[in-house]
Amino acid sequence: MTAQQLILSLVLATMVFSVALELKLDDFRRVAQAPRAVICGLIPQFILLPVGTWAATMVLNLPPNVEAAMILVASCPGGSLSNVITHFGRGNTALSVSVSAVASLIALVATPFNFAWMVAANPATAGWLRTLAIDPSGIWVSLLLLLAVPMTLGLLFSHKLPALTARIQKPLANFSLLALLAFIVLGLIKERQLLTLGLLPTLGVVVLHNASGLFFGYVTSLAMKVSERDRRAVMIEGGMQNSGLALGIIAIQFNSDLGMVVIASLWGIWHIVSGLACALWWRRKDARSAPAAG
Fold first, then answer.
1. Do the beta carbons of residue 91 and residue 229 sit within 8 Å?
2. Which of 104, 147, 206, 217 gets the most CB atoms within 10 Å of its CB?
3. How much is the pTM?
């Protein structure tokens, strides 16, 4: 592992640790109190977006590493940013936190499972992986190091040292987020020769891919007839995948393959743009309806 890969892995582990510091038993109790809404938030993340992505890669004639990156991002759980965006968009923040908490646990099994079978079922990506001599099951190791270990430590830390947790949680979360964004920006600067008009088709793929996640969240929430605030949370959870986790897996398992890094990095930037756009739209909608309500 290179120094760059090690630094990224530590940043991501710190981010997961800081998120775990926020989780309380009440977050998991809410799952029992409102299982329907939580299930509604999990369906787009672990079924619709991954399967839809796999189906798209079977039709599109994209480079194998790009298709593998799309599948990997779609297989990752939602990131902690979804809770912030949901709160800003006046969605159900408690539901968003509950979905994120459960999704992080499910991801330990679902992420490597989805990635493994989807890559193997796509002839182009399956052949590419064999050429690289990469075993998809190695993603288990990455998830153990980047997700399971820091999450367990964070939960234990918050339970045993609540006073210290309250002091360090926000600064640690801000640091890890800024560090991840800096890593993405510095990586793009390093590969600035790629930042040409030729990158627009790749950006277009990322935009459409992200839009499909938001759409799947919207359709699922309509089908399951959840409330407006719940629908906002489900949409954001469906459209904000943990691209930072995907970057960490790419660094460890794929030796920072450039095509995969570009997809995950663009995702990391664009899903913030699309999430904020949705949140601002909802806030405007609430502002327009407020006088009528009064």
1. yes
2. 217
3. 0.79
